[in-house]
Amino acid sequence: MEEIIGMLNAIVWSDALIILCLGTGLYFSLRTRFLQIRHIKEMFRLLFDGKSSESGVSSFQALSMSLAGRVGTGNIAGVATAIAFGGPGALFWMWMVAFFGASTAFVEATLAQIYKEKHMGEFRGGPAFYIERGLGVKWFGVLFAVVSIVSAGVLLPGVQANSVADGIQNAFEIETWKSGIVVALIFGAIVFGGVKRIAKFTEFVVPIMAIAYIVIVLVIIAIDIDKLPGVIALVFKSAFNMEAGFGAVFGLAIQWGVKRGIYSNEAGQGTAPHIAAAANVSHPTKQGLVQSFSVYIDTLLVCSATGFMLLITGKYNVLNPVSGPDGATEYLYQGAQNVSAGPGFTQTAMDSVLPGFGSYFVAIALFFFAFTTLLAYYYIAETNISYLTRNFKSPIYTHLLKVFMMVVIMYGSINQAKLAWNIGDLGVGLMAWFNIIAILLLQKPALLALKDYERQLKAGIDPVFHPEDIGVSNAHIWNTINKKKEV
Q1: Which UniProt keywords are given for this protein, alphabetically ordered (predicted)?
Q2: Tens digit of pLDDT for each residue in 7-28?
Q3: In the chain, fewer beta carbons within 10 Å around the N or the C end?
């Protein structure tokens, strides 16, 4: 099975996808005149704009839910694996994916808002919805929905469950299958409560854990702050093949930086738009800007904190892509003896500065980060099931999904880490291919919405979206939303 997954990954994650991801981010940055820089102040303001309703969640709840998907094992274990296979330079390429990807995240989130629908009393949306309504190609929308259900419901949860179980076993010596059962049961208790319970849980947990993790890591960095300039120089030198020691992984630095960057911040992957569509806002651009900002929080803050901590403490390994005699594993750098790439690097790094605390804290942080990501995956899979079954009122399909994902979580916890990550990468890559092609074809409505928002903002009014005013059709939900506001 591992060979089959590896072969499929080699096809999906070819150089073409790497170029497509970076190129799309650069293209949208130019088309939006680098909104990720121009509108940073507005992004901050919008974080707490809007209130939840019976149909949708608030902007902050949508941000928390999307961060639940973005901030996960990719920020702890993903950064470690990127450095292990791509060297310190991989961190730079993760930054590049985040910077350019912020514009991609804006476009996909804005489109999700424009073409969202209401199903069983709740706002629903995402790539499948905007592909069908915006492009008018239903079969493409159905195909994306199927790929999303398989990716979010089957392929991706195993990575999160595996990292949690691995981290808990490293810290507390609890067998992985036991952790898997506990995580699955807690997961079931929350998802059977519906999207509002998911939103409330992530709204509370995500900010607290993210802030706690960043504070602890910053303390560790501050202890050896004199090493930071050298570490930053190492990242840039390795990224551009100016560091002789890591020359053998120069090409891999780009590949792994982009791969782990997309896995972590999800820009262009097509997952975050599902959550963005659930927000109750007066204009699609508002949620587009909020989702753009969330990419910064994920990569430029959380991922950078992890990367700097690993490099400053020196507790990481960089694998030599060329095997030694008899296929033996060789290292270009080895600072973490007998530790496999993943959460173990982060736990070892933190323990080296805070003995007796680091491993436990990382295990707990990893549990909450990964667990909230599992909730986000469920919501994504549920939304696509909602898309495929919107003519039916029966909840049986979503109930089956809940039970099935509980089984996947238990299986993922006992799986081999390498296989779990390869399966997860396949899911990310498949969704990215379909979604990026879709948003490149359907970019105009998002760009028109941005211009409309900026025009209203300049006029000193709180922007309200009227799709027909800017020539956007088939966005019927906004007529209903605007009528309610008028009443």
Answers
A1: Cell membrane, Membrane, Symport, Transmembrane, Transmembrane helix, Transport
A2: 887 788 777 888 888 899 999 9
A3: C
pLDDT tens-place string over residues 469-485: 999 998 888 888 776 55
Give the separation between CA 342 and CA 422, rounded to whole angstroms.
13
Average pLDDT over residues 431-451: 94
| Residue 241 exposed, middle or buried by CB count within 10 Å (0-12, 13-18, 19+) | middle
Distance in angstroms (rounded) separating the CA atoms of residues 355 and 272: 37
CATH at 137: 1.20.1740
444 has a pLDDT exceeding 90: yes
Give the model confidence (pLDDT) of 113-127 as tens digits: 999 988 877 888 999
Q: Is 288 in contact with 276 (CB distance < 8 Å)?
A: yes
Q: Considering its fold, how many domains does the chain have in total? A: 1
Q: What is the distance between the alpha carbons of residues 306 and 295, in angstroms, rounded to a whole number?
A: 16
The sign of the dihedral angle between the CA atoms of 209, 212, 218, 220 is negative
pLDDT at 486 over 60: no
SS (H, E, C) the chain: CHHHHHHHHHHHCCHHHHHHHHHHHHHHHHHCCCHHHHCHHHHHHHCCCCCCCCCCECHHHHHHHHHHHHCCHHHHHHHHHHHHHHCCHHHHHHHHHHHHHHHHHHHHHHHHHHCCEEECCEEECCHHHHHHHHHCCHHHHHHHHHHHHHHHHHHCHHHHHHHHHHHHHHHHCCCHHHHHHHHHHHHHHHHCCCHHHHHHHHHHHHHHHHHHHHHHHHHHHHHCHHHHHHHHHHHHHHHCCCCHHHHHHHHHHHHHHHHHHHHHHCCCCCCHHHHHCCECCCCHHHHHHHHHHHHHHHHHHHHHHHHHHHHHHCCCEEECCCCCHHHCCCEEEECCCCCCCCHHHHHHHHHHHCCCCHHHHHHHHHHHHHHHHHHHHHHHHHHHHHHHCCCCCCCHHHHHHHHHHHHHHHHHHHCCHHHHHHHHHHHHHHHHHHHHHHHHHCCHHHHHHHHHHHHHHHCCCCCCCCHHHHCCCCCCHHHHHHHHHHC
Check: CB of residue 92 under 8 Å from CB of residue 236: yes
Q: Yes or no: say if 6 and 425 are a contact pair by the CB < 8 Å rule.
A: no
The residue-averaged pLDDT of 413-424 equals 70
Exposure of 460 by Cβ count < 10 A (0-12 exposed, 13-18 middle, 19+ buried)?
A: exposed
- Structural domain including 154 reads 1-484
